[in-house]
């Protein structure tokens, strides 16, 4: 930098020549230099203030933007996890309609080893094999004495097992904290709950994920930390579920059936109060899916929603209800039932000879295949299909467990007049017992479709009307007579006025055709019949008993007694008091003397 001198010689000489004081020149130059320095300093300070101001503006803008994002986003809470781990470990509880625990989390530990830190690998392997009998001693010893630096031993252990391992005293055996899913009631409601397993995991934590049932269906809700204090509330009643399971298991054993299912449903809200599928399993030790054989023989198979069967004569009441709703017949209309009823090379017969004609009411009471086929001919295939569609019989049920979507009905490839006739008495169309529960609920509640649900509801959830109230009332009277004087006479429960319909369908072979000695026996019922509150479906797979010296497989001998026993057990638990059945009052005409 070139600096101007304060006393330039040329100016000094000129000033002396003129008689001026040379010191004034130095003072003036010094003043100018100070002014120049001050101007540069001021410019530098202003630049710094400008940069600082821009920084504060950006900072406040970012804070405002963040506040705006927080104000418009959904509230969330921090994810609770184990120390030092980013794996979510929280999961909300599952409770029944009374708040009783069905599934919860349990603090436990995992067990792993650092083989290089083991003091006595052989002794540790022997001790572990004694504590955990399912461990392979040779395999664990090989892992401990090899080159591995890390070995998983158990993903979850009990407090007693942890103490036993701790007593071994080997520093190479280590524990990791984690949470596991606990089902305190064991196998109770196993098919509804489904089960859970570990997803992402490390030595300090493990992610619990649902693998079946409501655990899988509502996995995102249960894993959301914001719902940790709000359990998932189901429509199940724990006491009713326990009683239903006990009765159904006993009935399955007595009737020599290979499997069974029952569904108890509120006809107004659609709440499933109890749903049982046997055989079942313990979700605390969920078995692996089968890799061979018939999947329906596995205890994991949920017969209530995955079991798609021809449900036999239980469908006849739908045919009668639709025919009455269309104005084609009424309960006393006489129908020709002379048989066999032939259609091409096919013929339809009745189980017994019921004469030449029956009223619509007697067709249901006697369970005449020919009679319902005649009604189906009047209805027509197209109208029948539309009616069953409105009852939800042609799509998978909306029941909120993950397996329900797999229970899609099996429809005839060509819904012809012959299909309409066979479907009218429950053959040619395969549905699940859950479909049947929804269909019978529509009759019981006065004609409205109601969707089955596993979630607790706050009140009636009636859907669109599928039949008139008069047709539904007439159908209920017929179902009551089926119990009092028809094929379901073993279904009477004193004080609870049961109404229902039996259904016995031959079981199809995997290769085609039907077995001669294997059936699906179903009893679809409602109670009390004059003012139904609940629908109960009981289905037995391949039942067979010896009664009065004969082998019996029909639903009237197998499914009906089981359902009657179940109603007698659970009706008091539901708060229903026994009562005298109301009767119609005889008309009295007053005349003058």
Explain this structure.
The chain crosses the membrane at residues 49-69. Keywords: Carboxypeptidase, Hydrolase, Membrane, Protease, Transmembrane, Transmembrane helix. Residues 87-223 form the Penicillin-binding protein dimerisation domain. With 593 residues, the chain is α+β, with helices and mostly antiparallel strands. Helices cover 36% and strands 19% of the residues. The protein is built from 17 helices and 18 strands. Strands 1, 2, 3, 4 and 7 form a 5-stranded mixed beta sheet that branches. A 5-stranded antiparallel beta sheet has the order 9-8-16-15-14, with helices on both faces. Strands 5-6 form a two-stranded antiparallel ribbon. Helix 3 packs antiparallel against helix 4. The longest helix is centred in the N-terminal third of the chain and has 51 residues, at 22-72. It starts with 8 loop residues before the first helix and ends in a 20-residue tail after the last helix. Residues 77-84 have low confidence and may be disordered.
Gap from first CA to last CA: 142 Å
Q: Tell me the Rg in angstroms.
A: 40 Å
Q: Based on helices, strands and strand pairing, what is the structural class?
A: alpha+beta
Tally of individual helices: 17
Largest sheet: 5 strands, mixed
Shape: elongated
Residue stretches low in confidence (pLDDT < 50, at least 5 long) are 77-84
Overall mean pLDDT: 88
Measured by DSSP, the beta-strand proportion falls in: 15-25%
Percent helix range: 25-40%
Number of strands: 18
Protein name: Penicillin-binding protein 2
Domain Penicillin-binding protein transpeptidase: 262-551
Domain Penicillin-binding protein dimerisation: 87-223
Organism: Parasedimentitalea maritima
């Amino acid at each position: 930098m070139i600096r101007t001198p304060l006393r330039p010689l040329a100016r000094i000489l000129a000033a002396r020549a003129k008689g001026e004081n040379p010191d004034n020149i130095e003072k003036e130059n010094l003043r100018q230099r100070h002014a120049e320095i001050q101007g540069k300093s001021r410019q530098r300070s202003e630049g710094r203030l400008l940069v600082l101001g821009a920084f504060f503006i950006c900072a406040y803008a970012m804070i405002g933007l963040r506040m705006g994002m927080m104000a418009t986003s959904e509230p969330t809470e921090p994810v609770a996890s184990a120390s030092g781990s980013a794996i979510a470990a929280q999961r909300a509880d599952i409770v029944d309609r009374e708040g009783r625990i069905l599934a919860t989390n349990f603090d436990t530990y995992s067990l792993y080893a650092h083989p290089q830190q083991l003091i006595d690998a052989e002794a540790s392997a022997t001790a572990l094999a004694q504590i955990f009998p399912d461990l392979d001693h040779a395999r664990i010893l090989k892992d401990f004495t090899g080159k591995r630096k890390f070995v998983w031993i158990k993903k979850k252990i009990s407090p007693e097992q942890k103490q036993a391992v701790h007593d071994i005293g080997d520093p190479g055996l280590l524990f990791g904290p984690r949470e596991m899913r606990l089902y305190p009631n064991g196998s109770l409601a196993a098919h509804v709950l489904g089960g859970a397993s570990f997803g992402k995991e490390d030595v300090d934590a493990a992610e619990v994920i649902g693998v079946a049932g409501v655990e899988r269906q509502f996995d995102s809700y249960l894993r959301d930390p914001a719902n940790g204090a709000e359990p998932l509330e189901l429509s199940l009643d724990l006491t009713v579920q326990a009683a239903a399971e006990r009765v159904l298991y006993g009935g399955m054993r007595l009737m020599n059936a290979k499997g069974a299912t029952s569904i108890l449903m509120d006809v107004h809200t659609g709440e499933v109060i109890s749903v049982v599928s046997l055989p079942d399993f313990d979700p605390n030790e969920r078995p692996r899916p089968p890799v061979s054989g018939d999947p329906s023989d596995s205890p994991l198979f949920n017969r209530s929603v995955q079991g798609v069967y021809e449900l036999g004569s239980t469908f006849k009441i739908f045919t009668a209800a639709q025919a009455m709703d269309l104005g084609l017949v009424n309960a006393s209309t006489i129908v020709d039932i002379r048989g066999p009823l032939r259609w091409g090379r096919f013929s339809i017969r009745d189980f017994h000879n019921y004469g030449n004609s029956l009223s619509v009411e007697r067709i249901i009471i006697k369970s005449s295949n020919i009679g319902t086929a005649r009604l189906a001919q009047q209805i027509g295939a197209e109208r029948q299909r539309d009616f069953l569609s409105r009852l939800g019989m042609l799509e998978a049920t909306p029941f909120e467990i993950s397996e329900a979507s797999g229970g899609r009905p099996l429809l005839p490839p060509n819904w012809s007049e012959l299909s309409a006739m066979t479907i009218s008495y429950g053959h040619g169309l395969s549905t699940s017992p859950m479909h049947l529960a929804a269909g019978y609920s529509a009759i019981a509640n006065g004609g409205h479709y109601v969707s089955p649900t596993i979630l607790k509801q706050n009140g009636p959830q009636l859907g669109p009307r599928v039949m008139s109230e008069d047709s539904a009332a007439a159908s209920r009277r017929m179902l009551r007579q089926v119990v009092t004087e028809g094929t379901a006479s073993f279904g009477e429960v004193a004080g609870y006025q049961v109404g229902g319909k039996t259904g016995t369908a031959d079981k199809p072979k995997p290769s085609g055709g039907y077995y001669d000695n294997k059936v699906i026996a179903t009893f679809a019922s409602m109670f009390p019949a004059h003012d139904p509150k609940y629908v109960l479906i009981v289905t037995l797979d391949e039942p067979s008993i010896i009664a009065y010296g004969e082998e019996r497989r029909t639903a009237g001998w197998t499914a009906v007694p089981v359902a009657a026993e179940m109603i007698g057990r659970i009706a008091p638990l539901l708060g229903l008091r026994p009562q005298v059945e109301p009767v119609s009052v005889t008309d009295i005409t007053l005349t003058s003397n």
